[in-house]
Fold this protein.
Amino acid sequence: MNTAARMESTSQRNRIQVSQVTADLLLAAGLSAWIAPRKGKIFVKGKGEMQTYWLNVKGANRSKSSKSKSDMPTVAETLSDSSDSQEVDISGLDGVETMTKTDRLVEWNVEVLTSLLQQIIASRGGAFEANNASLRDKEATIGTGDTVLEEFVPIIPLKRFDATDLGKQQRASSIEIGEEAKTQLRNFLANVASMYRDNPFHNFEHASHVTASVKKLLTRIVNVDDRNGLTTTLTEDVNLVDMVGHSYGITSDPLTQFSVVFSAVIHDLDHPGVTNAQLVKENTRSAQIFKKSVAEQNSVELAWGMLMGKEYEAFRACIYHTEDDLKRFRQLVVNSVMATDIVDKELQALRKARWETAFADTLVQDETGDDCKATIVIEHLIQASDVAHTMQHWHVYKSWNQKFFMECYGAYKSGRADSDPSDNWYKGELGFFDFYVIPLAKKLESCGVFGVSSHEYLSYARSNRDEWAREGQRLVKDYLARYEEKIQEE
């Protein structure tokens, strides 16, 4: 209420302005059609500079026009009239005449990553200059091994900042990354969006949904005290201090946070809409190269190769300035994206063993021990975000579940899957909740880092599991009917 009251003086007549937090919640619910970023940041007394959004009332009303007032719109229904091929009317929004759904998602991601780049630059004293020749030489050689998976390491040494030094840093919101860097960031994200295929589930909207969940978990790390915890939470203006001994250093380095969010954006880039096992069976070019975790390794390879292009030099200069930072950025991206392969049994077993080791009572409580915990917590954070729809409101879960079914069933109908997924979809979802989703939510809770969000995720997971047990069989029949309707329409 305090934030809303202070924002009111910067709004315009007959317009509804919402904060970044509210925008994140709308995006997480799949309601990207409802918002558009306001051009430039506003200054709010007591808060500093804030990125805010205009509520697109026409888009909201249009998505609700065919429902009763008591119905909550599903993601699919809300966005059904604003596909990428259609232009959504948001005329008058700070000079933006029309914007597609993808355009809105790109702009949202631009603002999220810009705020993290501001924190990175603030952490190095506000220094911003082009990377030197020796660093460019390192850029040309890093990540040029046989496969991405071979670069995976069980422990990533994180960088930590002294709380006193952090207190003296320039306020991140006052940092300008520069028009050149921001233009390059926007172009990079637009290219990333274009490299996502038009799959029902594994698409750029899914990547943005995962990104929203990662951002939410990172900004909801609980308060501890003024010496070793976040002094503010649940806002877009997070004050970083040393978290050693509580979040294991995850929040003491903004580059770590940027890396995980960046990984969420690119983690399914070029996803073919079929399983890794199918790619291996088909002996695709990527399967010949990577052997396992094919889609995940391909995503890293493509995104990293594009990022290293000359046209993104200013953007890269915002991310890292030293060889150590470059190496840490690459390692965090590799580990984070590889963690999203939840099907490979060998990788699952290794990850389970590493969690048990990291949180064993016998683990030495030092920086290495904290790095061990931080590395595995980060991997579980992005895993939870990758299936965040299972731990959100029932309508969000149901919508994304339908999209995933459509993708899997479409693969089967096109001859790219061995079995009909509808035969076991109901029981499979129950097993997914019982043996993956709920245990994962419990781990988020047991690590003690994410506070109320971990309770929220676990509660929604259990609730959705129970609702699926009651409604799932009927829904599978509905999915099949909708698939046939779609085929007939096409």
